[in-house]
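Internal ticket - ligand job 536, S-adenosylmethionine:
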Amino acid sequence: MVTKKELIAEIKSLKKELKSVNKQIKSKEYGISWLDVPEIFEEECQSKIPVLKEVKEKTIKNNDGKPTHILIEGENYHSLTCLKQTHKEKIDLIYIDPPYNTGSEKFRYKDKRILKKFPDRTLIPKDNPLKHSDWLSFMGKRLELAHKLLKSDGVIFISINYEQYAYLKLLCDKIFLESNYLTTFTVKVRHEDRILKGDRDFHETTEQILMYRKSDDFKTIKRLLDNSSVAKYVYQIEELIHHPEKITLGNKEVEVFRPDEYKIIKTDPSKDNLQKINIRGSLKEGNTSGRFQMKYLEERNHLFNYLYKVPKMGDDQFGFRYFLTRASESHTNGFYFQGVPQSKKNTKEDPYANFLDFEDAFNNVGYEGGVEFRNGKKPVDLIKYLINIGSLKKDALILDFFAGSGSTAQAVIELNHIDNGTRQAIICTNNESDIAAEVTYPRIKNVINGYKRIKSQKETLFELNLNPYNLKNSNVIPDAIAEFDSEKFRKRYDEIKQEVRKDKFIISGIIKKKEKIPGLGNSLIYYQTDFSVKSK
Ligand SMILES: C[S@@+](CC[C@H](N)C(=O)[O-])C[C@H]1O[C@@H](n2cnc3c(N)ncnc32)[C@H](O)[C@@H]1O
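stdout (structure tokens):
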């Protein structure tokens, strides 16, 4: 038997332990951690001052009253450090599409930041999360600067894929804070059957875009929808008798029509018709009609297909509302019929969905802006869509510091053209594999001055269902290839394409047509990163 004294001693000891555990828990850091990877730029900054140098011969000047955009060529750590001096808390919206760390050989630029060894040169095991350290250190430094550049009501969108998503989310939670996380958009980028990497376990058809705000000064923007449609108003009800039975439900005198005493007619949509609404789920308690049905008609639902005309309900032109009981024992719910509400506005505001289907846009991204840039080019329409979700300001300052081919600059220029805006783009890219010189700059020039775009027109020449029967007949496909991928057809088409799509083997001929895209004006100033010597 434990004595009272012993029990008190035990409680005291437990309390002490609890206090110490609490202290430990509170002092611990949670979340992601990584090793800092020093960059050459940091070393250079010790003796020199990072600056931007204007490249005058690359200026594009148009006296058209339209905005002047900025292209900065160089390492973005450097560019962002300079922008911190000139644009601190001045940026409304940032979109970036950083390297996803896939390590893909095909990329024109370096896309692999994997830590392979511990500082003592021993190898980091395959599945050790520290492997992501290089990428996190690289991204962390740039996102810290980006955070400083954003206005208090600014937002940032970051494209990423499944492999790196979890690491990026935790990194952003640390820099922007979890309370400023708004959503993750899942973007459909390719068709389920358009398999690029058949050796993978799963075929990735979507990517993610993380959205964070700088602070709660940012107010979420709603999607404006056309609410003027009367497409669902297709019902009319004909009463076949003049003196139906009358009963009192609540304080209302309700007319009751038996199944053979009315007719429901489905007709073309009209503002004078009725919409049929299933009374189910949250609707049962969510509006007056739902509540009326639950309170008074539910107990009469053994009377199938009865129509009740309830006066003084709804805000449509009719001043009454019809309720229809369920059709049989096997049906659970009843319905009501409502006319177009008098209070209905022609537009309504809905929250943006966080699933975006841009499959078609991704299919056509190839020659957007008149330049080719494989593996990583984002559709202009996707970026325009994000800008509209992120800022209503027509004079917003928009930054992309992983600009690649310059899609963001084109999106900004096009959006201004659509709504007479004066948004300004600042885009930064390094010049790996001459991207800035060969792709980014020529693209902006194209958009400003106009260019010829190659548009592909596809004609199907051969199509075969890939079923076991056709596959057994093993000569069909080689014969088709021999026939259609031949000199005769190559003369007629610019390209002969073989592909497997929707369980079909398809050979198509592609004709590439040149299309003239008019210039949209605007101006550009071109900078390169540089250093000036520190004075002693
Ligand atoms: C995925 S691509 C962006 C593609 C772009 N969204 C588009 O639509 O064309 C990433 C780009 O970031 C550039 N980049 C990577 N690391 C960089 C760095 N440290 N500084 C500047 N640019 C960098 C690469 O050269 C590449 O062009």
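Auto-summary: The chain has 14 helices and 23 strands. Residues 105-109 have pLDDT under 50 and may be disordered.
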